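TL;DR need structure tokens for one chain.
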Amino acid sequence: MKENYKSWNKLAVAYFLGATLALGFTACSTDDSSSSTDTETTAKIQFNVAGITEGGDSTLTKAQATPQVFVDTLENGYELVCSLTPDRKSLTRATSTMATGRTFRVIAYKNDNGTLTYASYVDGTAGGSSPVLTLDAGQKYTIVAYSYNLSTAISDVVNDSTTTISPLAGADLLYYTTEVTPVYGTNTALSITFAHKLAKVRTQIVSANGYTITAVSASLGTFKSAGTMNLQTGAVTEGADLSQSNFSIGGSATTYGTTYTNFMASDSNYVFAKNYTSAFTLTITSLTSSGVSLSSKTSSFAASNMLAGYRYVLDVRLRKAYALTWASGNLYKTGTAASTINIASSQSTFVSGMAGGYYWNWGILDTQSPTTTYSDVAVTGYQLTDVAWGNDSGRSDPCKLWNSSYRLPTYSDFTTVLAQGKYWGQMNTVNGVYLGTILAPVTGTENNYVFLPAIAFRNGGSTTMNTSGLNEYWTSTYYANNYWSWELRFTSSTCITTTRVRQAGCGIRCVK
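>> reply
TL;DR here they are.
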């Protein structure tokens, strides 16, 4: 009996141990396979694209609200004006829609106290079915998404040993990141709003101010593409130089409708901008327009003023150096009648001294001649009221008496043209100043510029000429005290607007 009891007891213990071990092995097997079969430890995250963040008006100042302007004075009286400024058309909306068919990639990293470990990824298409990742419930993840904003499949290799990618040169680069902890039993929908990592530049050729640009060939140089992007942080490094080598508008191969007659735009370039401190250049190899043809002109712009996520316009247009038409010679009057008023035969022609009638008191009477009105005592020889020359009774604008289409230049007219440049030089061996340029005109093109000969001036209340080297021309603008008015004054080294007493004799160049 005792032996039977011992045998039964041994069998019971063996049975209990076997059952316990069997249960233990079954639990380990379930845990090992939980990532693929046991939904009690996983959760699904579903992704869709909400849009792309664009630069908005509220941050326009950060995106370089003041244009960078490059003005190149040409040798034939024209200027090439290139300006870089934020594209205001793209600033009207804060978020744009990602076009249907554009591909994107979503990557999940396990986030353990800031240490990221690759888990898995999934690709998706905007407008298509939402991609899904099955992740461990209760585990914190860093979710990263990126896109080239293209319809082609993303071919980058992404795995547990990949931390960076080499973005496609010249393409857009969109990025998004967030953190999420999946919850068991909950399928989470996550909306992705991408942000640009690069800036975008659109080149436009504009026909304006009466100058129709018919053809242009140009290139953008020393842009930097994105070299690498850290997938976990989104940090971008500089890559290789980019150039827009195929930038050509106009010519026999292209026909423009009414939409493009006054506005031509190239394809846009996406460029690396953030932390890029070098300059990039627009090089025009040829440009043809009505009245001007040029080649080999380069404009430089600071990319450091550009911000990622903003679109910029590189605007190219022509303008003449002068907003006004200037008479082709100085004004003179040889008698008392208006019929004796005329202009010199050329820009460099004048007669020094009293006899020629080239030296005018400011506000001279219509019935007087510059050859006699010089006396400081004969106050009728110049205007005593503080109104513009031409607004006082009997003292008409002498330019209008010569030709009703013309008028005296104002103080503002001279300051405007001086801001565009001035150059001391010669025309027909006569010294003087070229206005609206900082360059010596190419021989044979001098008359494309405004040239004022160095005529000196007649001392106030005297018949003697001032020989100090000052050369002076009146404006129609009075200064103060019924005695002073504004003038243009230049020497061989300076050219300014200043004031002179009204009984002095100064030159006149009419404008319209």
